# Entry
Amino acid sequence: MTKESENEKDVTVLERAPEPNENLLRHQLSALWPDAGDDELKALAADIVAHGLREKIVRHDGAILDGWQRVRACSLAGIELGSDDFTDFVDSGEECAAFNYVVSINQHRRHLTAEEKLEMAAKLKKHLGIKPGRPSAADAGMHQEKRRQLAEFQESLGVSDRSVERLEQVAKADLELVEEVKSGKKSLHKAAREAQKRIAGSEYDKAFEKVQAVCGKSFAAARSRN
# Structure
């Protein structure tokens, strides 16, 4: 790990961290966790400038499994990472070993809001490919294992299935609603009710368009009179 110049950079003067080197990819499991805020990232960058990189960056399948925030902090501080700053994840061969590793090291590392925890659970559910309905007989075993993995993750975060489903419903209706929930401007319960109305209205409009296509202008005229 080398600095760009003899003089240490004042990381506090930079408003936002530049993007890490394009050759450094973030692992999907790492991406379950939200990025550190600007103040937290500046503090981490300042610590790395003062004390060096305390923990190595962990790679798995050619991507950063652990240490993405350290990569961002080094980029912010103008510090170039070398091969000695990286290590490869040692796969034990156990089912979901990489996932369990990421959860264990991140569970108590950072403070997360209730909204961030919900978003993380929703991301994992999407990553695992868990969809509504019963799976086929051939996929039942794998589906059950994915459900178990998701349930354990949600339990570690303290979030419920119902809350995750509500967030998915909100995202389906309007991504701007999701941002309002994340920022605290709107409660999840209120956003879910609004999303339900929007989805219902959209489905009604789609149904009407299908009927109109079949019945023609006479149906549209009758609807306008009502």
Residues 148 and 154 are 10 Å apart (CA to CA). Strands lie at 2-3, 57-60, 63-66, 79-80, 86-88.
